[in-house]
Amino acid sequence: MDSISHIAIGACMGEIFGGKKLGNKAMIWGAIAQSLPDIDFIASFWMDTASNLLAHRGFTHSFLFVLIASPILAYITDRFHRPLEIQFKTWLIFFIAVIGSHVLIDAFNNYGTAWWEPFNHHRVTFNTIYVADPFLSIWPVLAFVILLIRKGGEMWRKKIAVFGLSLSLVYLIYGIANKVFIDQEVRRLLKTQQVVYDDYFTTPAPLQTWLWYVVAGDSTGFYVGFISLFDKKDTLKLTFFPRNEHLLDPLSESEELSKLKRFSEGFYTAEMWHDTLVFNDLRFGQMIGWEQPDQKFVFHYYLKEGADNSVVVQRGRFAFWNGEVFQTFFKRIFGY
Hints:
- Helix 3 (49-55) packs parallel to helix 8 and helix 4 (63-80) runs antiparallel to helix 5.
- Helices cover 45% and strands 15% of the residues.
- It is globular and about 65 Å long.
- It has helices at 3-22, 24-35, 49-55, 63-80, 88-106, 134-149, 154-192, 255-264, 323-333; strands at residues 199-204, 211-218, 221-228, 238-242, 268-273, 276-286, 297-302.
């Protein structure tokens, strides 16, 4: 989830928790706590890109971090607001809930969240919500803005905060329901079309939860396509991308490549772009793939010395998007 949404969710939780006694300070503490796991961004200042990909949503998004950070914040706030009758254990429960909700929410999109670090490097991902979904974020953000600009009684403010969080939760549950339906359809269509695969995943295409990106394959390569909840045809149009593992053989001892493979969780391919070897992580989607099935993948990492990979996760996310592409995107959402 994007930073603005985390801030808004934390502020709403803070208002519900302590708005009566703390005023806007409650929203500030909630926003700080909800944003705290993203402190891992500072790793980018000294880590190489491949290492930073693993560091992001690593230890600071683990349950152990929640258990370490929560009592520290509870101690600070208990000392800072000591005249108020808010006990340490109440602060502790609040911060566990706020920081823990950040760690939980981030697992619903496709980046992956290291819940079990440092004991286990497995990343949890439910592939249910796009990383920046306005239909999920608008409600807590709207509630946060209202709470900032308008005064009101305690119950009125609490209702606004609950309203924002509740609608966001309803949409999240709706996204989970869509995910269950889409997965059932994809498995059925893959079987009907006799597609051979060892593993697959589905994840929402950008900014919504009706059009889904599909990847299924094995060690030889992957079938990629899109499916909508509103599709009328009983087929799944797929394009095959070979893994091309042989292209990576000369770099088999490369620590950089090893980290990229670990980060991709096995969903990767290799390609030659002119004289440059490229590593594709398929989990982040395909550039306007619903319109051009053979398009490049959003995450493409140049395995070339001196190459700029600093924005590898974002650089292809909205490449080629314009008014016409938006129109085809909306049409594809509704099954056309």
